[in-house]
Amino acid sequence: MLLTVVCVKLIWGLVGLRESVAQNATGKDEWWRDTFIYQVYPRSFKDSNGDGVGDLNGITSKLEHLVDLGVSTVWLSPIYASPMVDFGYDISNFTAIDPIFGTIDDFKRLTTRAKALKLKVVLDFVPNHSSDKHPWFLKSVQRIKPFDEYYIWKDAKMVNGTRKPPNNWLSEFQGSAWQWNDQRKQYYYHEFTVGQPDLNYRSTALQEEMKNVFRFWLNLGVDGFRVDAINFLVEDSRFLDEPKIPNTGFQDTDPRTLRHIYTSDQNETYDIVASWRKLVDSTNGTRKIILTEAYTTLPYAMKYYQFGSNIPFNFIFLRNITSVSKPVDYKRAIDRYLNSIPAGYVANWVTGNHDNSRVASRFGPHRADQITMIAAILPGVGIIYNGDEIGMIDRPMSWNETIDPAGCNAGPSRYNLTSRDPARTPFQWDSSINAGFSTGKKTWLPVHSNYKTLNLQAEKTTQKSSYAITKRLISLKQNPVVQRGTTQVTAIYDAFLGIARRLPNQSPVVLIVNLYNHSMHYDVATFMNIPKQMTVYVANAAANLSIGAKINTSFLQLPGNASVILL
Length: 567
Ligand code: GLC
Known about the structure:
There is one protein chain. 27% of the residues lie in helices and 17% in strands. By secondary structure, it is α/β, with parallel strands linked by helices. It has helices at residues 2-17, 56-61, 63-69, 104-116, 135-141, 204-219, 267-281, 298-306, 327-340, 359-362, 365-377, 405-408, 415-418, 456-460, 466-476, 480-484, 524-528; strands at residues 36-40, 73-76, 80-81, 93-97, 120-125, 153-154, 157-159, 162-164, 178-181, 186-189, 224-227, 289-292, 311-312, 348-350, 381-385, 486-492, 496-502, 509-514, 520-522, 533-539, 550-552, 556-558, 563-566. Helix 1 (2-17) packs parallel to helix 8 (298-306) and helix 11 (365-377) packs parallel to helix 15 (466-476). The chain binds alpha-D-glucopyranose (GLC). Alpha-D-glucopyranose binds next to loops.
């Protein structure tokens, strides 16, 4: 622990020496503070033309749902021209809409409607790589200047007369990260699929091209960007082998067998983020938000704050906390995260996304709302993934149904450990054909068979549905105690997790979660020093408590899996 603190301090010290980005510590113009941001995965949200794939007009037609939930912002996963090898994260034109999603006019209509509804629009920005069908790459293959340097090219290593990749670097999606190109007679580097060659940020021309991409979308009035896979942006220029981690139990092709000291978290990456901050800040209008995606260590994640990210995604509910975590594990992970945030910056809590099993599948359906409750009561921004607000669960896929490259590349015996298809199935709007997602014969991924009962329309008429609970949780962010109060996280033995938020002279807001699956009772009032009489603000289905019910916290009896927020 001490060592971690020392390391964090050391890194901050170093950060201080480098060019860091001044931030508005008052947070007055940070409209995202104390709100929820909603991720739309466009292929799966709403199909307006019956081709089985979601599109922009579909999203526009459903923006009221987001207003109804009370979120501040819609973040759209990629909508750009793409061969769809990685379902939009392989981009062949950074400033064009893919026809499957619609047209630039459809996009303008979407942003106009969002503005009218007072919703902010955030776009995915994918700077690490392009598609191998991008004209830049095709010219790079032909060594046409300046495109020749837009990607990471290296000569082969000849071993006993045989051509080998330049080093041992592995792709996130399994196997060597190097692909031979017979025309250029060199290998190119790809952190993700073969169809996603990494861009070279040591080319100033490329850096400028990517800045122009920002400018293009800023001119169309977007409110910010979620920057994809940022930690992989720059690679060490010595191209040394990465050290092997002994005894991982993973196959040699698995990236988890290497310590990514040369392909992740490089210093130059942070400087580039800072240059983007400067660029977006030079735009007129409302302050722009930058969210950054990096599955990395806490110190490296925290460092993004000082280099201009407003929301370096906090993935503790996707990585550190699992269905078997005990109250003390929650306490440690939450405290450690909160204590690491540099002064003046905002916390954030990601509950799910398109790359991970759904929250209701990771924690079990009875615990899905519990994680949203934690995200809601803790200070800062919540980030939810479309469908999680109605408690959608993963739809298991057979090998034949699997289309995600992360699953396909792992092969038939291991695909289900890495495939992201199960969490990407169409949104379940109602009980009509294809869950109201599409009128088409076939949808791009199958609709979960539970849609007849698990759908938004049904949940709108059910008390204690995930939808009803999520709505109340989103509005809890407007409570001044939740906005500005102190935070106390308490582990009550092995059973209860308690979170209390407090402001002087105001009654606290308190969350209690029973992490056992059987009934338990404690004198929570004494344990957490909270009032003996409190009122239910919201409770999950397992708690069997009604909103407004009076509770005696000196003998708080909660059924297994119950969670409740008290005022
Ligand atoms: C990010 C995206 C993921 C994608 C990858 C490559 O992690 O969230 O979906 O496959 O980057 O772009």
